[in-house]
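Whiteboard transcription, Tuesday session. T.W. wrote the structure tokens on the left side:
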């Protein structure tokens, strides 16, 4: 059996511990991003005077010059949020964004990057973690949702055009052909 003195044991263990610490920090850094993107600070929102609409707060991310949280007036459109974010970068795929869509408080506006050949770099299906926005989705995007065909998708877009933006997912109950069971099926897949 091998017997080591305290000095010999220390000479073996100290380099081993250092090696493990360096390797651990390198492994922990694998796949880590370069840090959070710069986000525009959000100042405190003062309470609105009686009768006035409080401002909308939206989160603009993706291929924009200054991603972050922005306050906009009620009735603002996606184009207004994009302008507040400094505009699109030269790599933005604006054809994938409905610039005329009305904004809803708490909404996230994602501006995708163009991929090779002019196509969108990222395409996320409704079941893959991204929620479909009832306030800006096209008939084609709504048609991809389970239980929503092209006719129902058109009814959702028509309702939005007539009544304005959806304030909650429960507003779908007002759309002809959509009942409580369908709303529960869509609740985790859509946002107002």
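and on the right, the sequence the group agreed on:
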């Amino acid at each position: 059996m091998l017997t080591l003195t305290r000095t010999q044991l220390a000479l073996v263990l100290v380099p081993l511990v250092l090696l493990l610490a360096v390797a651990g920090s390198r492994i922990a850094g694998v796949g880590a991003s370069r840090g959070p993107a710069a986000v525009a600070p959000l100042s405190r929102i003062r309470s609105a005077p009686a009768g006035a609409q409080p401002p909308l707060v939206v989160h603009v991310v993706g291929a924009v010059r200054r991603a972050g949280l922005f306050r906009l007036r009620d009735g603002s459109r996606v184009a207004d949020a994009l302008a507040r974010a400094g505009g699109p970068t030269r790599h933005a795929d604006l054809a994938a964004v409905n610039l005329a869509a009305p904004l809803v408080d708490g909404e996230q506006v994602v501006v995708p990057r163009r991929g090779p050949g002019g196509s969108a770099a990222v395409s996320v299906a409704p079941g893959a973690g991204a929620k479909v926005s009832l306030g800006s989705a096209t008939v084609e995007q709504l048609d991809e949702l389970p239980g929503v065909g092209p006719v129902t998708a058109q009814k959702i877009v028509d309702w939005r055009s007539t009544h304005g933006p959806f304030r909650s997912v429960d507003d779908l109950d007002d759309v002809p052909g959509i009942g409580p069971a369908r709303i529960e099926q869509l609740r985790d897949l859509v946002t107002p």
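Someone added at the bottom: The longest helix spans residues 6-29.
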